[in-house]
Amino acid sequence: MSALLSALTMGLILSLLALGVFISFRVFAFPDITVDGSITLGACVSSVLLVTEPTPLVRTLPWAVAAGIAAAAGLAYLFIAEGKALRTFLPRVLAVAVFVAGFVVLVLCFRNPVVATIAGAAGGLLAGMTTGILHAKFRIHGLVSGILVMTALYSVNLHVLGKSNVSLQSATTLSTYTNDVGSRLLGGETTLHIFRWEAATNDLSMLVFSFVFIILCGAALYAFFRTDLGTAMRATGDSPQMICALGTNVGNMMVMGLALSNGLVALSGSLLAQYQGSADVQMGIGMVVLGLASIILGEALVGPGHLGLTLAGAVMGSILFRLLLAIALRAGLDPVDLKIITAGALFLALVFPQALALVKGWGRRAASKEVRHA
Amino acid sequence: MLEIGNISKTFHPHTPNEVRALRGVSLTIPAGSFVIVIGTNGSGKSTLLNAVAGTFFVDDGTIRLADQDVTRWPEHLRAKLIGRVFQNPFSGTAANMTIAENLALATRRGCSRGLNWALRPSLKSEIRDRVRQLNLGLEDRLDNAIGSLSGGQRQALTLLMATWRRPELLLLDEHTAALDPKSADQVIALSEQIITREKLTTLMVTHSMQQAAYLGDRLVMMHRGRVIHDDTGVHKQRLRPDDLLARFEAVRRGELVDESVAEMIGALYV
């Protein structure tokens, strides 16, 4: 029962990765392999913030000011590129600068799992933004931009973590919070009987939390894609020429989309580290393949078309994929072979629809031949 | 009003593939004019439209639109003033999105995109009314993917999208070239109806001599990046497809003469 709950929880957490990969690969048709680095970045940033001592307020100020200035300069550049006058955007730029500076102070001064998780996601957001800027502003091929940032992130992650892995066993994490809430709701019970199986309260509470969190994230993403900005983002991937002719800056849309995508991926990394109780600089290897496999499985389950169904399909695909892996491991698969099995499963998921169409084509041709002979 | 002042554009300069696409083109198009641009392949018609739309910056000269110098404005900023219909029906619409979503994006052409709902019920009802006026029977299929429509239907919707917010300039780049004759006629009739009703300043490129002769109030013929004929008023109204074909024949003969002269010079040097 514990293995099943663990597989479901992992599937739910990694569905955020699938949603992120969905944005880059399906919405923008952008082969973004920054994902392998940004999931680790999310995990590393959150883990470090959870295990290090909080910084005194005075020492956070230079960082906060630097971050505020950087944010203000970046935003002002975007507004200037849009041809807007200084007085129209200055209040918004100042507000964002103050918000970013305040967030940096909050992150450095308090050791809190929620703040650490948000900071992890923000790290991924910056990584995605960098890939987007390399591609859109410096005209570097999408795949190469992703490779550049992913490679750079390996060193960044090592710097952030300070060593190759960090344990969160003694830290207070979101997992600790959910366990506390779960045991309080169940009156201190450590196990629960579901049908005839015994389930640990810890596992169950994390599963319920992940489920609710993913539902909220999925709903928010769906709502976002129904807004004017989100619709323009979807159109950017579909027909850049059209959206440009309608007055939208394609480059900016790409930067924002990749930031959102990698933000979700890093959020997934942050939750994963807190659930597993450790962060490792190698944990991102092959994650982009895993995200893609989830999307393809999801599409096979719900079919392409409606946006809401596609998003739900990505989540379902991620859960199914983790379940299949758990079953394979349970059946005696060597964990060393996990990545090759993942790649093989993705290959099968990709060729299955083609093989099915081929078989149907043969069937139709054979039937028409029989009719002609008759 | 559109004022094109002595613009030039050379692609791949200082290389063996150098192409001088525009050579000092000047045109002043008063507000409300409907200008047809014709010319042989490679004459610079589409390059002229793309230069005005901001697909690339010109090497020399100025472009002024609605009393603003837009020469250095990027394409997406010029879109605030310009509506465009492309030659390829697939370029002007987002195939995987619904008809309503495509049109909803067009209602905010040139405005900044925010977190408001793209498709409010009131907007959807307005979209339904405007689509009904096209008489294509699409008003009940607003939730269908636009990719499921025919080229003619997509081009009609692209035209509606380009003109939903009245543009200062409408650019039609051979927008019926990829359509079958019946659909092309429908789209041309619709274009004429919208342009006349809204009194739009329009620049239309076409290869059809029929369209060039009978549409618009001014005709510009281009050759090798230059304007070689500019007919307005009575001159334009008197033009018939045969006259235009005769002009193309004259251009072709001129090219043959050029080629034979080049061959003679080449032979002399060899």
Describe the structure.
- The complex is a heterodimer of chains A (374) and B (270).
- By secondary structure, chain A is mainly alpha-helical.
- Chain A has a domain of 223 residues.
- Chain A contains 14 helices and 4 strands.
- In chain A, strands 1-4 form a two-stranded antiparallel sheet. In chain A, strands 2-3 form a two-stranded antiparallel sheet.
- Chain A is globular and about 90 Å long.
- Chain B is of the alpha/beta class and 270 residues long.
- Chain B has a domain of 170 residues: P-loop containing nucleotide triphosphate hydrolases (Rossmann fold), CATH 3.40.50.300.
- Chain B contains 9 helices and 10 strands.
- In chain B, the strands form 2 sheets. A 6-stranded mixed beta sheet of chain B has the order 6-7-8-3-9-10, with helices on both faces. Chain B has a 4-stranded antiparallel beta sheet with strand order 2-1-4-5, with helices on one face.
- Chain B starts with a strand and ends with a helix.
- Classes of the chains: A mainly alpha (374), B alpha/beta (270).
